[in-house]
Write a structure and sequence with these properties.
A hairpin with a 2-residue loop joins β1 and β2. The chain is α+β, with helices and mostly antiparallel strands. The protein has a five-stranded mixed β-sheet with strand order 6-8-9-11-10, covered by helices on one side. A four-stranded antiparallel β-sheet has the order 2-1-4-3, with helices on one face. The chain is elongated, with a radius of gyration of 36 Å. It has three domains: 136 residues, GAF domain (Beta-Lactamase, 2-Layer Sandwich), CATH 3.30.450.40; 57 residues; 149 residues, 2-Layer Sandwich (Heat Shock Protein 90), CATH 3.30.565.10. The protein has eight helices and eleven strands.
Length: 403
């Protein structure tokens, strides 16, 4: 072998080493570019998440647009995020044969998915166009979205609890005021009623005086009934506890209100669970709850409609739902319906105490009441009472001195 051949071999070997070096550098450079894209994506996501001026939906859309540029074939990639059935996707999104997926979990619950697709026909050239690092990136993005969902849900729960606390404090203050007013009025009212009834027994009274005394007596009795309702709302009226079935309460009360329903062209539908367990409660107050809710429902359907009464239960509670197809309520009305004397009816059609009394009774029995309504879509009141509760004891006399 001569020097020429040796030189040629050396040059060939040098060229091969240089080619390998260049290929290695290009591979490293390509990996670095991919890592830079991934880091850029993660940095952008962190900036979006921390932006207080963006809504949850806006943040998801901004995150979505950051995903395709972080993938190996960015120009051909499209993305989709699905959260609780809500679909967010890039403008050019198409489902493709090749896709990469990561599940979104929040509070150990599956809430959705993040997807990257290559939808272009005949692409990509590789059998698997996705990198392992890209799957790790997608898993990271799904984890960040899961944390966003947890924070959003926690904030929603916090806001709801704050609203409930504010509402409870407001109703408590109103209840204390109502109870104070009721007690202060009760004694002079009983005095007026007692003297009016005493005078009525006087012989030889003119007819005009008898009529006037009758008006005084009727007005006093009406005022006393209002005081009773105020005391119930303020939870200062004692219970007479018995074991009963809400199904029987429904049947008994509807038999009394049937003529009112027929007169108002209201169709009554009963959907009563035959296996409904009994509850421990004050029967007369349970009747009052149903009566007030049914009368309100009928009045909300001036042109007639459908009144549906349902009973159901779970492991802890028994529920009574009263639904109507009436005029419904806006948010302002829903926020005030349990406030005493708040009413949209004419002066001679109600005192505005009906739902306040219902709220007081339900609360005093350890239950809760919820309302769903929208203008033109009817209303649905759901009373939930515990299946078992410690009896409050018997009491024959109320705080107003009445039997």
């Amino acid at each position: 072998m001569n020097k020429t051949d040796d030189c040629k071999k050396f040059e060939s070997l040098t060229a091969q080493v240089e080619a390998d070096r260049i290929e290695c550098l290009e591979t490293v450079a390509a990996k670095l570019r991919e890592r830079v894209k991934e880091l850029t994506c993660l940095y952008g996501i962190s900036q979006i998440i921390s932006d207080p001026d963006k809504s949850f939906a806006q943040k998801i859309m901004h995150i979505l647009l950051l995903l395709p540029p972080a993938w190996q074939y960015a120009a051909r990639a499209c993305a989709r995020i699905i959260i609780d059935g809500e679909n967010y996707q890039t403008p050019d999104f198409q489902c493709g044969k090749h896709q990469q997926i990561a599940r979104i979990c929040a509070m150990d619950q599956d809430r959705g998915v993040v997807e990257i697709h290559y939808a272009e026909a005949g692409f990509p050239p590789k059998k698997n166009p996705f990198l392992e690092e890209e799957q790790s990136l997608l898993n990271n993005v799904a984890g960040q979205i899961g944390l966003m969902i947890e924070r959003r849900d926690a904030q929603k729960i916090k806001s709801e609890l704050q609203e409930q606390l504010i509402e409870a404090a407001r109703l408590s203050a109103i209840g204390q005021l109502a109870a104070g007013v009721a007690h202060e009025l009760n004694e002079p009212l009983n005095t007026i009623l007692g003297f009016a009834q005493l005078v009525q027994k006087t012989a030889g009274l003119p007819n005009t005086a008898k009529k006037d005394l009758k008006k005084i007596t009727d007005a006093s009795l009406h005022a006393r009934s209002i005081i009773r309702e105020l005391l119930i709302f303020a939870r200062q009226s004692p219970h007479i506890i018995t074991t009963m079935s809400l199904n029987r309460i429904v049947e008994d009360e509807l038999s009394l209100l049937e003529s009112m329903c027929l007169k108002s062209a209201v169709e009554v539908r009963r959907i009563l669970d035959p296996d409904l367990p009994e509850i421990v409660a004050d029967k007369s107050q349970m009747l009052q709850i149903l009566s007030n809710l049914v009368v309100n429902a009928i009045q909300a359907m001036p042109e007639g409609g459908v009144l549906t009464i349902r009973t159901s239960f779970d492991s802890f509670d028994v529920s009574l739902a009263v639904e109507d197809t009436g005029i419904g309520m806006n948010e302002e009305l829903k926020d005030n319906i349990f406030v005493p004397f708040f009413t949209t009816k004419d002066v001679d059609q109600g005192t505005g105490l009906g739902l306040a009394v219902v709220h007081g009774i339900v609360t005093s029995h350890g239950g809760r009441i919820a309302v769903e309504s929208a203008p033109g879509q009817g209303s649905r009141f759901v009373v939930t009472l515990p299946r078992k509760q410690k009896p409050a004891g018997k009491a024959n006399k109320g705080n107003d001195g009445t039997e």
